[in-house]
Amino acid sequence: MYQGCFGGTRHYSRMPWELTATSAVGFATVIVYAVIVVLGWQHRDSRCGPEIAALHLVVGLSALAYAIQLGFDSVAVQTVWWGISFALSTAVPILWLVFVVQYVSRSQWLTPVRAGLLTVEPLAVVLAVATNASHNLVWTVAPATTATPGSAIALVFGPLYYAHIVLAYVAVAVGMSMILLVGIRWSLVYWKQVVVLLIAPLPPFLSNMAFMLGVSPIPNLDLTPFVFSFTGILLVLSLYHFDLLERVPIARRQALQAMGDGLVVLDTDRVVVDADDIACRVLDPAPRIGHSITAVFPDRPFDQLHGTTVTDANNLAYDVRVSELTDERGDEIGYAVALRDVTSRHRYEQRLEVANRVLRHNLRNDMNVVRGYADLVASGSADDATRAAESILSRTDDLLTVSDKARKVSELDDSHSQPATQHDVTALVDSVVHQARREYPDVVIQFEGAAHTEAQLTDAGSLATAVGELLELLVSQADRDDLTLRVGVECRDDVVVRIESSGAGIPAVDREALAAESETPLQHAEGLGLWLAYWCVIENGGELRFGDADGDDPVEAGSEPTETEASVVRLRFPSDCA
What we know:
578 residues, alpha+beta, Rhopdopsin 7-helix transmembrane proteins, Beta-Lactamase, five-stranded antiparallel β-sheet, disordered N terminus
């Protein structure tokens, strides 16, 4: 026999330690605690990461000591290991409060003085455990007590033990109250997380109460150190699973405030967490959940992404806005990449730029010609004056035509945002051709199209304007004496309006300006006709292309035209006719 340091005369163990079923369960929970500690340490830079690691490190060591205790058949040895397990567990209530304070972002409450006061109780209990043999205020062992491997010895607890248990229950209740009160304020954002955190401490709390009341499923066995593993799992899920998911509603709310139309949500590592349908349609390649945003914007650093403009396959323009996501506590949780539809502004600026440059160019050139002919009228013969007057009239007519087209450009509506409806394209084009035959009686204009070929259009009148402008442009570029225009409407995958000229076709300078989508001093169209047709087409969600080859893009500046590139114009509009 010997006098144990934890009080009382104890007998030496008759058998070495053996692995029992309860010890095996205890070791399994220790592994769970180890995993949670590693996860908490990996997230040490995140909210509550160190607190999670510290809390479960202490609980894991306490569970380890308790699992070892359950493998002995000696009262003395079991008492020693129980004392170690209990001494370690005294730090759990204070660590729980530290975790809660950190979670609710009230770490300023935990001043050094308050932290010191909170450690007084567990340190006092540890000291009492170490000196229990001299006062028996924590526990005593009844003389007839026996020890069996797989079961814990029955102890008679003293007043200090019960005092600590009461304080531990108060700490749990205070922590849950703080989470509940703060959670009410955050309920619209973190309600899932708050609910899980409120449930998390209940398993060990109820398990310990069952042990204290003598109704534990296994007599004399306190399952609290093992059941606490469920608390750890719930804490990790709430902080690192629900916290990730809650970025999405936060991002959506903040993106709506920023008037975004498409949305991509990123975590702090700039990995895609969520992307809505608009963002997946606009961006190419589409953002994929779990992949870095750099895969979507490989040529632009993330820090330079804010303020850029992207264009989708339908020629709609979107401004990119990047904003940091913060929760209600001000903690950074990721980024929101919002796409704002600026198609109206983008097209307006393009129309303004093109009209301004064309008007200035044509006005300057034509007025120089008019001035020259006016000088000729003033100083020349009667025959020269007649020819000059005719030229002046021709130039002024050109200026009036350009001015009229500029008026049409200014009257264009941003109809792309309006809902599309079904329209009979064949009837629309046929009416334009009929009018063109009256305007150009010396030009052969042939029309062929299946009856009632319908397409989805937002503004049927702008389609008629586009076809009329193209016919006028093709007529103006050729000799009318031997000019034939063939207009057709056909249904492939979409509705295609095809216009072919037997004459010179669309001038290269006009096609090159359209390919560049802007006017420059060295690259500009002779007029606004082609631009006006182009804008009318894209406002209806269509495409304007040159040549007959499917998929041909508008000709690039400086490239050699193909055989049909100048003489064939195709307008393609979405339809269900296939």
